[in-house]
């Protein structure tokens, strides 16, 4: 069950329209409207949650929980530099992560699923605000998972060739937490450093010490990242800074390592502050949990992927991706999985996600649509048999 040439052409046209008109966060009214138009053309009614999330329910056996399929709608605050004929017409905003492809693929899956008798109801979730890590939590709080027994998602991956699907057990995306460390001393004259606590020197030692957390506190078989992305401090070259602020991110592959790294960061910061006789204030902003495929759900995903791309196109090796995804919030409530759909453009150029040059091979849209449809059927049959 794959899109025919006519449907694939429509999906590519939809993707290019969404790409021309990217929207951020929750402000995806136009994008949501285009989704509704696409579903209406298939005879599918919709409803709204949180103003701009679009939800549609396809009927199946009434005594079986629904299978949810999720796509994300929002773009990124990135200036496009692709030179595409359908490049963003919104200054400073771009679909630099493939969400335009995800959305188009799920509309395509809806068209495919309308052609068959479903073993379980299917709920289509078109979610805003994935990039801000707010969307999934909000929709869950507003009942989007009510009556749902399984949930599945996908992400285009330009590191994988077209025709491949990565469906590993375990880690798909890391947790994402942010932190800020503010070191405070008394300030003073740079010519008399012995009279003051030097927060810049303290920050330098702390910056180095933080890099030992993963190297020396996290077990070698586990995965984690501690990175500092911003340092702010000082007012003049001959003044010892009264305060220095360091901002960074923690990424972890499991909840246990996530907690370990956070605790180690606090211990390291307080210890280094004491050594340099400065005060430290620490704040954390908890982000998304890790996305972890349970083996049973990953096996289901592999069967569905194999039906679309063939057994040789299914990759099972662990992913080395420490980027975040708010799909993990759904998996805290409902079993499911996420796969990565190959979308590499085979011309040797680098098109990293979240960069202004990001693009993908549009053939991946048809594969993604077929996968969405197939996993809905596979998971529905499994639930119907179990229940």
Report on this structure:
With 387 residues, the protein is an alpha/beta fold. Strand 1 and strand 2 form a beta hairpin. Helix 8 crosses helix 10. The longest helix is centred in the last third of the chain and has 24 residues.
| Major sheet size, sense and barrel closure | 8 strands, mixed
The number of E-state strands comes to 16
Helix content: 25-40%
For the terminal residues, how far apart are their CA atoms?
26 Å
Q: Report the C-alpha radius of gyration, rounded.
A: 23 Å
**Net shape:** elongated
Class per helix and strand makeup:
alpha/beta
Unreliable runs:
none
If strands are numbered along the chain, what order do they take across the biggest sheet?
1-2-4-3-5-16-6-15
| Number of alpha- plus pi-helical segments | 10
Task: Supply database-style keywords.
387 residues; alpha/beta; eight-stranded mixed sheet; four-stranded antiparallel sheet; 10 helices; 25% strand; elongated
Q: What's the arrangement of secondary structure elements?
A:
Layout: H1 5-20, H2 29-40, E1 47-49, E2 53-58, E3 66-72, H3 99-113, E4 122-127, H4 135-141, E5 148-161, E6 165-166, E7 170-173, E8 175-184, E9 188-189, H5 199-210, H6 212-216, E10 224-233, E11 239-240, E12 243-252, H7 255-275, E13 279-285, E14 291-293, H8 295-309, E15 314-315, H9 327-331, E16 336-344, H10 363-386
Parallel strand pairs: 3-4, 3-5, 5-16, 6-15
Antiparallel strand pairs: 1-2, 2-4, 6-16, 7-14, 8-12, 8-13, 9-11, 10-12
